[in-house]
Amino acid sequence: MSEQSREPVEVVEAFLHAFEAMDFDAALQYLDADVEYTNVPIGTVRGHAGVRQVLEPFFAPIHENEFLILRRAATGSVVFLERLDRHRLDHGWRDLPVNSVFEVGANGLITVWRDYFDLGTAAKIHDPGA
User: Fold this and answer.
1) Fewest Cβ atoms nearer than 10 Å: which of 2, 67, 109, 121?
2) CA angle, 85 as apex, 66 and 92 as ends, to 5°?
3) Structural domains for the chain
4) How far is Cα 58 from Cα 114, in angstroms, rounded to an integer?
């Protein structure tokens, strides 16, 4: 099945599956080359290089992820997710509640991705004492 024939929810879930495995090359294939990624507490970047610049350092010390989709809703090309992102580091599992909004373009690729989460909770993920 080509990306263009997939429903937006299927595109987003396939992206998250690759991203969960920290296969950045595979995950980026689901993102439009000019994707707008907003990490709401931090800021917005554009394009594959921008996404890598933000996410690779955060995920570098992580050994394993579980992205649990708690709720999903879609209308047209827009997909809303409530997730629990679980990350395993040397000091154990850390959880980050995340809400996301994705927009999938006519080309079947994600053109807009926004993650909403608490920055204080995210900062504690890498803290062994948290």
Assistant:
1) 2
2) 70
3) 3-124 (3.10.450.50)
4) 16
Whether 1 shows a pLDDT value over 60: the answer reads: no
Neighbours of 78 (CB within 10 A): 13
What pLDDT is attached to residue 127? 84
pTM of the model: 0.91
DSSP 60: T
What CA–CA distance (Å, rounded) separates 102 from 79?
Answer: 5
Is residue 115 annotated as part of the catalytic site, yes or no?
yes
- Of 25, 115, 118, 127, the catalytic one is 115
127 is catalytic: no
pLDDT score for 123:
86
Distances in whole angstroms, Cα of residue 10 to Cα of each of 2, 57, 86, 90: 11, 27, 21, 32
Cα 37 to Cα 90: distance, rounded to the nearest angstrom:
28
- The active-site residue out of 23, 25, 85, 90 is 85
Task: Give the tens place of pLDDT for each residue, 43-58.
Answer: 999 999 999 999 999 9
CA distance linking residue 74 with residue 104, whole number of Å: 11
